[in-house]
Design brief:
With 346 residues, the protein is α/β, with parallel strands linked by helices. Helix content is 37%, strand content 30%. The strands form 3 sheets. The chain has a 6-stranded mixed sheet with strand order 6-7-8-3-9-10, with helices on both faces. Strands 2-1-4-5 form a 4-stranded antiparallel sheet, with helices on one face. The two termini are 46 Å apart. Bound molecules: adenosine-5'-diphosphate and magnesium ion.
């Protein structure tokens, strides 16, 4: 649905040129929620703004629904942009317009008649749950409600693509969850492709089918969310993931582990990091190995959660037993589909 090829973007900064995007290639399939995550300054906003050519890239192609936007004349580009809705961190509502009139604005600009506008806006307000607040002004509603207005406005032109630049970053976790649930519902209802920019892995975890990690203007890692969460390759990905699945042990836990490992012969105690991704968390895998191999497993730290509707998480486990039994334990866990990392330096 969206295809970016060889995108470069450079700004003239006060102290010389800033290379914000340095060769981005990206494909977003139709109907998918595609997450792009990165630290502040990584190039996320620059990237999302090239998709609707709010920023024209220095080089590269932007194809949306088969059309090369960079090749279009201004009139054709204006029309093509109606296929691309956008929502923002700070909502960008007009303070002097009511909820209804904010949503109606793009339709007024398109030149629709009043009756057509009403016919479009009413069901959208219903969809985002704001029918009762349609005559309020932005100053009279909450942040989450403002974002719902932003979403309804973005959908008014019946776009095929929805771009979201940190749309939940100004909201509390609970409101974030409700907005993300709304985005999922919209995707289901309209089959939209959604590009979701965020610096929060929690957001990716809750909604993204695929995730791309951007750092210093380049995509450094990309894949199915569950896959990337299970086997992060890049250091930036790991550090961002620490938010949702601990990559390292907290210092007090490490101190305890050091004490135990220091006292036991190396062959009889091991620190393991178990990553569960997919269906195995439903199985009694840990009690199974304890029974089979008579090892002691002490869960030190971790959490099992859900990603893309499937169990996912990591546990730090101290395993104790005879060397042979420990080796068999690791092998058995691996054959059960658990990713086992032996932590040798603590
Ligand atoms: N209009 C601009 N002029 C100069 N530099 C800019 C401009 N916009 C962004 N940048 C710089 O480009 C880089 C990427 O910015 P941005 O795309 O906003 O990152 P993000 O959204 O990931 O925080 C940063 O170094 C930023 O300072
Ligand atoms: Mg940004």
């Amino acid at each position: 649905m969206i295809e970016l090829q060889g995108i470069f973007q450079t700004y003239q900064g006060s102290s010389g040129p800033v290379e914000a995007l340095r060769g981005i290639d990206l494909k977003v399939p139709r109907g998918e929620i595609f997450g792009v995550i990165g630290r502040s300054g990584a190039g996320k906003s620059s990237l999302v703004r090239t998709i609707n050519l709010l920023n024209r890239p220095l080089a590269g192609q932007v194809r949306v629904d088969g059309r090369d936007l960079t090749a279009l004349q201004p009139d054709a580009l204006r029309a093509a942009r109606r296929d691309i809705g956008m929502i923002f961190q700070h909502f960008n509502l007009l303070a002097s317009r009511t909820v209804f009139d904010n949503v109606a604005l793009p339709l007024e600009l398109e030149g629709l008649r009043r009756a057509e506008i009403v016919a479009r806006v009413v069901p959208l307000l219903e969809l985002v749950g704001l029918s009762d607040l349609k005559d309020r002004y932005p100053a009279q509603i909450s942040g989450g409600q403002k974002q719902r207005v932003g979403i309804a406005r973005a959908l008014a032109s019946q776009p095929k693509v929805l771009l979201s630049d940190e749309a939940t970053s100004a909201l509390d976790p609970e409101t974030t969850r409700s907005i993300l649930a709304l985005l999922r519902e919209i995707r289901r209802e309209f089959g939209l492709s959604i590009v979701l920019i965020t610096h929060q892995m929690q957001v990716i975890k809750q909604v993204a089918d695929q995730v791309a990690v951007i750092d210093a203007g380049r995509i450094v890692e990309q894949g199915q969310t569950l896959e990337v969460f299970s086997r992060p390759q890049h250091e930036v990905t790991r550090s961002l993931l620490d938010d949702v699945v601990p990559q390292t042990l907290p210092e007090p836990v490490l101190a305890r582990v050091r004490a135990i490992l220091g006292a036991a012969p190396a062959s009889q105690a091991r620190l393991l990091r178990l990553v569960f991704s997919g269906c195995e968390s439903d199985q009694p895998i840990l009690s199974d190995v304890i029974r089979r191999f008579s090892v002691d497993l002490n869960i030190l730290h971790g959490q099992i959660d859900e990603v893309q509707g499937r169990p996912f998480g990591a546990l730090a486990v101290l395993a104790r037993g005879a060397n042979e039994q420990l080796r068999a334990t690791v092998a058995h866990l691996r054959s059960s589909g658990v990713l086992v990392q032996e932590v040798s330096h603590v």
